[in-house]
Amino acid sequence: MSAAEGRPRSRCGGQAVLRARAEAAGYRRLLRTRAAEVEALRGAVGALHRQLEGLRDRRSGELAKYQERVAELEREIGEAEAEMARCLREYPALLRLRMALEAEIAAYREMLEGEELRLGCLAAP
User: Fold this and answer.
1) pTM for the full model?
2) Using one digit for the tens of pLDDT, what is the confidence trace for 59-87?
3) What Å distances lie between residue 46 and 39, 49, 110, 119, CA to CA?
4) In angstroms, rounded to a whole number, what is the distance separating the alpha carbons of residues 125 and 118?
5) How high is the mean pLDDT of the chain?
6) Where are the alpha helices (DSSP H) in the chain?
7) Cα torsion angle, 79, 84, 85, 91, sign
8) Cα Rg of the chain (Å, integer)
9) Residue 124, SS3?
10) How far apart are CA 113 and CA 8, in angstroms?
């Protein structure tokens, strides 16, 4: 082979090296871009994790508050039921007392009307 025949090959080889270098540089740029995207996504994931933890903490606090309120309402229901049972136990005695008082009032009214008639008869002549 002659020197002239070797030159085109080296020139071709040089162009191939340049193309390979340019391609490698393109891949490096793409790699840096992807690495930046990955870091941005990691930051977003971290922010979402922090937000999720905040939501869990808040939900946990609200859940505890609602459970406390439910327990309070159940306690109030129990107290109301006990008061209602007490009232139901007292009702018959109070009803008997009322009926006795009404009978006594009726008896006094009858006596008063009789006394008024007697006094009315004495005052008439």
Assistant:
1) 0.49
2) 999 999 999 999 999 999 999 999 999 99
3) 10, 5, 92, 103
4) 12
5) 89
6) 3-123
7) positive
8) 52
9) coil
10) 148
Placement of tokens 């139901």 in the chain:
88
- Residue owning tokens 């505890």: 64
Q: Which of 95, 77, 97, 76 is nearest to 87 (CA)?
A: 95
With tokens 């990955």, the residue in question is 38
CA distances in angstroms from 64 to 23, 68, 76, 110, listed in the order given: 60, 6, 18, 67
Look at 94 and 118; give whichever has higher pLDDT.
Answer: 94
> In angstroms, what CA-CA distances link 37 with 23, 29, 45?
21, 12, 12
Q: How far is CA 121 from CA 107, 108, 109, in A?
A: 21, 20, 18
Q: Name the token pair of 32.
A: 């840096």
DSSP class of residue 2 equals -
Question: How far apart are alpha carbons 120 and 125 in whole angstroms?
Answer: 10
Please give the structure tokens belonging to residue 71.
Answer: 């327990």
